[in-house]
Design goal:
It contains no helices and 7 strands. By secondary structure, the protein is an all-beta fold. A hairpin with a 4-residue loop joins strand 6 and strand 7 (83-102). The radius of gyration is 36 Å and the shape is elongated.
């Protein structure tokens, strides 16, 4: 497997032939060809390290699309000064398809690595069979099921007392 470490926008990325990489937004339009700066190239046991770049090695990629990343929130808070500032940011990215890594004029068959399909394993729930008391299972002796708690009787609503307190006569202000 041939791969290269490339630089784009001051950041380093691992580029593998036939796979896509996501870099910070580039000015090129979709479908445009891009040459990336190569810092290291490895082909099985052969490794070439640049000082700072590897001369004579090209990494060619095609711009697939431009997209925005997930929103990142920030929040400034000063409790006693009544300062609450909320903001967010969405970084813009460019998806590049790496087509060729090698010397100019070199021809190679690129093995495009297709994403492996995700296989979901469905776990079937075992039907609960009633166990006989004292029956042993493969994991050890049978355990008794905890006793169910008796249902609490519902409380009757509180009755209002039939007796009323004797009312006191109101005093007039005269």
């Amino acid at each position: 497997m041939r791969y290269a470490i490339v630089e784009s926008g001051g950041k380093q990325y691992k580029a593998v032939e036939g796979q896509a990489i996501e870099v910070d937004r580039l000015t090129e339009k979709e479908g445009a060809k891009v040459d990336l700066t190569t810092l290291l190239m490895a082909d099985d046991n052969d490794v070439m390290v640049g000082t700072p770049t590897v001369s004579g090695i090209q990494v060619k990629a095609t711009v697939m699309d431009h997209f925005r990343g997930e929103k990142v929130f920030r929040f400034k808070y000063s409790p006693k000064k009544r300062i609450r500032v909320r903001g967010g940011h969405r970084q813009q990215y460019t998806r590049l398809m790496v087509e060729f890594i090698g010397k100019p004029g070199e021809t190679r068959d690129i093995e495009k690595a297709e994403p492996k399909p995700v296989i979901e394993k469905k776990v079937e729930k075992a039907k609960a069979e009633p166990k006989v008391k004292g029956e042993k299972t493969a994991s050890g002796p049978a355990k008794e099921a905890p006793a169910k708690k008796a249902a609490k009787p519902e409380k009757a609503p509180a009755k209002k007392s039939a007796e009323k307190k004797p009312s006191t006569p109101k005093k007039s202000g005269k």
